[in-house]
Amino acid sequence: MVDSWTGVCTGGPLDGIQVTVRSDPFLAADKAEGKAWVYGKRADGTFAVDTNHDDSLNYPQGSQTGERSLDAARLWQAGEDSLLDIIAVSAGV
Amino acid sequence: MATLVSVPVRSMANGMVHDCGYKSAVLSGIVPNAAHLKSGGYHCSVNDLRAYGNGNDYSNTRPDDRNWNPAYGAAVDVSMSKADLVRTYGRVHAVWADHSDPRRKYFNAVNVWDGSGDATRLNFDKNTAGYADDSHKFHVHAELRRRYVLDAKAARAMVSMFAGDSTATWIASEEATGLQGDDDMATISQTDFNARMDAWWLARMAPNAANNPQRTALRVAPWQQEVGHTGVSTHDQLFGAMLALLQTAAGQQVDVDEDAIAAAVLASLTPEKIVAGIPEGIAQQVVDLLGQRMQA
Within chain A, what is the greatest distance between any pair of CA atoms? Predict the structure, then answer.
């Protein structure tokens, strides 16, 4: 049995959704939109989206949404290496 | 130690992510992480199983697994949206449930989710459907039997299953590949060859098969197919244009003076010209004989 963690997410595209993941932190990836979010486990057992990074390229006005641009090559490498669990999110799919 | 990713397994992962119609799919695991190394299983190579004390675990026990290709991992994880996971479940379950499907021999198990209740581990070796942990409500886990991790056909079989190909489509696509260079095609019987081609044809012509210009063209009866890019069918060419040409030719009146042609031909025939067309060894005899007859 591989280690896993279950918790409800706050913020970002997984807000309010309970997930079971194999790494902490983990990545939420929207392939169609080319966007990604990093979630980390908090002391209360929930997963919170990480807004502590500069996403000014996506939001020049300065919003801190946690949204990052998705680099397909890096996403593939992260997946192949199994070091960061990835949850696929895609509206309407 | 380390677990290597074989070319077929990487190709399989790429196909599962990009070529099967799952818009949300992203790769989420091939080589083992620390947790995999601790617990064992198909993400780990046999070498890594041994190095971490799991050399005899469930993934290295059966004949098609035991110590085969010891440097390579044999599992791929693909994360998907719920809708794509449900779609995957239907496609994988169809192959798992059909014990005659030839793709099954390459697979050990696939962990999938039908969208409700627990995720399921569909075991192709034992023909069982068991429990899979909740992380499989977010990703599909697919295992090849270890003996096939260097086999490109096994990788194609997995992608074919994930793409939802029917058994007939899988067989036909492999036969098409074989015709381009697979030696085993040269040894099959004519009956077997015909059966395979029939399967290929039926798969391509199935009413529910995806359409494309090539298939549309094939669906037209041969005699109705267009001749090149002329906009004219074979049928019209034969029974339309060609028939008109034949009728025109048949209706023509040719005025021929047979006597005049014969006289002209005979006038050109001199003994010298006749001799020129005769083998050298008997030429003199012919000249003598002709001379005697002309004098007579």
Answer: 45
Residue type, B53: G
Distance of CA B193 to the CA centre of its chain: 13
Which residues of chain A have a CB within 8 Å of the CB of B23? 31-32, 90, 93
Considering only CB atoms, which chain A residues are within 8 Å of B29? 22, 79-80, 82, 85
Question: How much is the pLDDT for B250?
Answer: 78
pLDDT attached to residue B287: 73
B182 C-beta neighbours (distance < 10 Å), count: 13
Q: Is B212 exposed, middle or buried (0-12, 13-18, 19+ CB in 10 A)?
A: exposed
Coil/strand/helix, residue B59: helix
User: Which is it for strands B107-112 and A47-49: parallel, antiparallel or unpaired?
Assistant: unpaired
State the sign of the Cα–Cα–Cα–Cα dihedral B8, B14, B16, B21: negative
Amino acid identity, position A51: T
Q: Do A80 and B135 touch (CB under 8 A)?
A: no
Q: In this structure, are strands A35-41 and A18-21 parallel, antiparallel, or unpaired? A: unpaired
How are beta strands A18-21 and A26-30 bridged, if at all? Answer: unpaired
Rounded to whole angstroms, the Cα distance separating A34 from A57 reads 13
Query: Does any CB of chain A come closer than 8 Å to the CB of residue B225?
Result: no
Q: Report CA B190 to chain centroid distance, whole Å.
A: 18
Question: Are A75 and B13 in contact (CB < 8 Å)?
Answer: no
Find, among A53, A46, A77, the residue nearest to A67 by Cα: A53
What is this structure's pTM? 0.68
| Report for B30-34, B273-277, B292-296: range of highest mean pLDDT | B30-34
CA distance B49 to B37: 7
pLDDT per residue as tens digits for the range B106-148: 999 999 999 999 999 999 999 999 999 999 999 999 999 999 9
B39-64: string of b/e by CB count within 10 Å (b at 16+)? bbbbbbbbbbbbebebeebebbeeee
Q: CB–CB of B159/B15 below 8 Å?
A: yes
Q: Which residue blocks in B19-151 are alpha helix, DSSP H?
A: 34-39, 46-51, 82-97
The token duo for B15 is 């196909």
Q: Which residue carries 């990545």 as its tokens?
A: A27
